[in-house]
Every structure is written in C-alpha cells, then in structure tokens.
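Exercise 7.
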Amino acid sequence: MIKTLIQQVREYKKAAILTPIFTALEVIMEVLIPFVTAAIIDKGIEAGDMQQVYIYGGLMLAMAFLSLLFGVLAGRYASTASTGFACNLRDGMYENIQTFSFSNIDKYSTAGLVTRMTTDVTNVQNAFQMCLRIAVRAPLMMICSMVMCFFISPDLSSIFLIAVVVLAAALLLIMLKTTKVFSKVFQQYDHVNSSIQENVTAIRVVKAFVREDYENTKFGKAVQNLYQLFVKAEGRLALNNPVMMLVVYGCMIALSWFGAHFIVGGSLTTGELTSMFTYVMSILMSLMMLSMIFVMISMSVASGQRIAEVLNEKSDLTNPEKPLEELVDGSVDFEHVDFAYQHGSGEKTLHDITFHIDSGETVGIIGGTGCGKSSLVSLISRLYDVSSGMVRVGGKDVREYDMEALRNQVAVVLQKNVLFSGTILDNLRWGDENATEEECRDACRLACADEFIQQFPDGYQTWIEQGGTNFSGGQKQRLCIARALLKKPKILILDDSTSAVDTATDAKIREAFATKIPGTTKLIIAQRISSVQDADRILVLEDGQVNGFGTHDELLKSNKIYQEIYEAQTKGGGDFDQPQSNSGKEGAAQ
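Solution. The predicted structure, written as tokens, is:
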C-alpha cells in the first residue's frame, strides 16, 4: 500500500524532501534557544555581566528569526507536497478507472469510488502533510531535547525515558484498537453517499410515490450507523488525552522535586533547571504531537488501503502485442460462445451461442427480460470478454483488435441513455469531436432528433442539464442515436434504444437507417415486434440460448416463442399510436 501511494508523489518529490530538511533546521534552532537562555541566566544575570546578556540575547534573537524562517519554508513546501500528492492520487485513480473494463467497474459502487476520491484522499493528504512536518519535527525535537537534558543532568533525564516508554506503549495499543473501527467507518461512508446519490438521482420518483418519509428514515439509519461507529472510534482515541496528561504532570512533579534537591546539593544551577523545564515541555509537546500523528494515521490507514485498491486494480481486458487497427467489414460471427459475468462462478448468462451476420445486414434481437440480449451485444465491442468460444468482427477475433479502434467502429447505444452537461452540439461531438455543425444536423435528421431541436430557442446550442433532466426519455434516446451515427461505424448496435419513442418515429428511424447507411451492420434489440419485423433476420433468445434465427415470416411459422410474443402484442391492441381493436380499447379503459 505505502509503495503504491508514495509513487503518486512524483513531481512533488523535491518539496517532499525539502520539507523535513527545513523542519530539522527549525528544530535545531528551537533546541539551542533554551541552552542560550541558561547562559543568559548563569553568565549574565546571576554574574551581573550585562555585556554577556546582550551577546547571548542577540544570539537568541538571531536563532528565533532563523527558526521562524525555516518554519515558514517547511510549511510552504509541506503544503505544496501534500496538495500535489492529493491531486496525483485523485488523478491517478480517475485515469485508472477509465481503463477499467465493465467487469472491473462491477466490483465497485459509484458511491464507493466517490468516497475514495474525496474523503479518503483528504485523510491521506492530511496524514502525509503531518508526516512531512510533525512526524519529523516531533521525534527530532524529542531526541534533541533529551540529548540536551542528558548533557545538563543525566540523572534527571532518566525520568523522560520512563515516560516515553509508558506513553509509546499506550499509544500503540490505542492505535491498534482504533484502526479496525475506522475501516468500518469508511465503508459506512460508502452507504451514506450511496443513499444520497440514489435519492437525488431518483428524486422525481421519490416525490411521485410520496416516499420522502421512507427515504428520510433510510438515510437517518445510515447516518446513525456512521455516528455510532465514529463515537466508538473517537471513544477509544479519547483515552489518548488522559494518558498524555498523566505523563506530562508526572514528569513535571518529578522534575521539580528532584531538581530542587540537586540545586540545593550544588550539582545543578538555576539556569540549567530552567532550561530543563523548557526541554521537558518540548519533549512532552513532541509526545503530544506524536499522539496526534497516531490518531491521523489510524484514520488514514483504512483510507490508504481503499485508495491503493483502486490504483492497483488492473483491467481484465488488454490489447494484444500487435493489435489490428481496422475492421475489414461489419460482419459478426459467434462461435460456441459461453459467457458469465463472474468467471468460474458456473452461472452462465450465455450458453453455446453460434450465428453469423453478414456485413450491412439488419438483425433484430428479441426475447424476454434477462435472456441475455444486452450481454450478447456487449461482447461485440469487447466491453466484456467471452468465457469460452470466440466472437469475430470483420472475420477477426475481437481480442486481436486494438480496443479503442474496435469501439470507434462499433457504435453502441446502450439501454441507459446518458447525456452530459453541456450544449447539444457538445454531446453530439462525443461521436466525432471534429464534426461540423452540418454533420451533426445530418445525424440528427437520421435519428429524427432535428425536428425537436429546432423547436428550442437556442437550437443546437441548447444547454443540457446534468443527466439530461431537461429532456424527455425519447429525446435523449434520439440524441444518443445521433451521437453514435456521427462515429460513422461499420456496426451500429441499438440496445432497446427506441423504447421511449412512438412507433411512427421508430419506423422513420429504421427507414432512414435502411436508405442512408445501408452498408452499416445494424443490430436492434427491442421489446416490441414492430421494431424488428422489417429486419433482414431476427434472433430470438431464451435463457441465454439461441431459440430461433430467421426472417419475420419464417419465425411466425416455426418459432413458438416468437409466435407468442407476436400474438400477445397484436391481440393486446398493438402499440399505443396504432389502431386498436374494440377489445383492446376496452382493455385499455379498464
């Protein structure tokens, strides 16, 4: 974990190295000041020599100025190193997440990733800054102060050794007990963030079903669990302060008692005892700072492990040594393909899938919910890898292609239509960042999106809110289709991407595809027969297996599942914008 995190310091190594150097110089100046104070008392004040007072006083001022200067420089470099380190951690995690395959992404919740990139990074950043300064300053100050104490009076200095051993043992025990609790704390943070994200994203559904009280109760439970874990962790850390105070006051009492006897006996001067008190306070303050470091480390260890987990995660999908960059055509072949989301789990989503699709062919894919339609098409653009068998695109195994090149030529419009904040043009140019406005308009005409865009006052400069909340489901679907068309793909996959548009618009989109992009292979997943019945062929899936593959007329004659779907949809009255029978109207009225 530590090695993984330290690698992210990178260009801030210089600042990270200079911080402890200036901190050490600051400590040296501070340690020498009490020594000079003792000389002022013994050689100046008690001896009545004002010249010595001025000399040593000037020396003390110079040391204080240097200490201040070194402290300012140490603070500046510490801030630079720690904030840069945090920036690199967030950037490193974000970049690595972009390389994840879908199976990698499935391991983490969105809320968990957000917590790691915010709360966890902040904890590690604070711990790193403390380690650069306080973790250097406190031990060095303690060691230097103890050396000076031994130089002044070895007998009195034994008091500090006993105190340090007692305090170190107590802090170690507290830290070990607390670290386990903090691991649970940050897991609970994930649940809290997940609850917030889910509620805010689905706020319209919450209000539509009047579930505000339920959501408040659910969130309250998550926050209460977080509160209880924090109380438990802080309760254990609270032991740190009384243990510290016990050691501090014990040292002060012991030093006062034995120091007075030594002064009376003549083995210790008043100035030396005064400097001893100063060094004792420095030692005890160093111990207190060390205890703060232990607290911060206790919190940051769990955060560091969670960050390192994301940084060390490797994508399940990699490019071959000499990847292919170009698809010859848009043909698709599945050869005895098995697929499971969790390899080796035995729960296969697809079983022994074999079929061939010619380049330029339009193929409909239909089947019940959960039969594996989306899983099947995700293998074509290699969003997942097969468990066994082979998927060929353009006559070549998809694993032989450069993944970026493959996905640039296989456009997928997923079930969940996602638009990003920005203008309509900004979103369309995800398909081709160099596309002209006219090219964007052409793509929108194919997707039947131009008609509603023109109705907006700002047209293609209309602003899209986060998640596309200011657009209807059908509008978002058509914009996503247009975005995919701008890639000019050899294969276009529509994963139930016209479910929110009326059948008339759906028919216009399919007609545009047939006339404007005849050379593009088109795979259309749909729930309604009307969306696929004009396709060249239709693939029927059931329980992850091919149940039928043929034209609409062929399947009506030979495939029982297709017949049942067709009869259920036509006898039920058809789609909402098609003429209904009287029985269908009566059923709708009921």
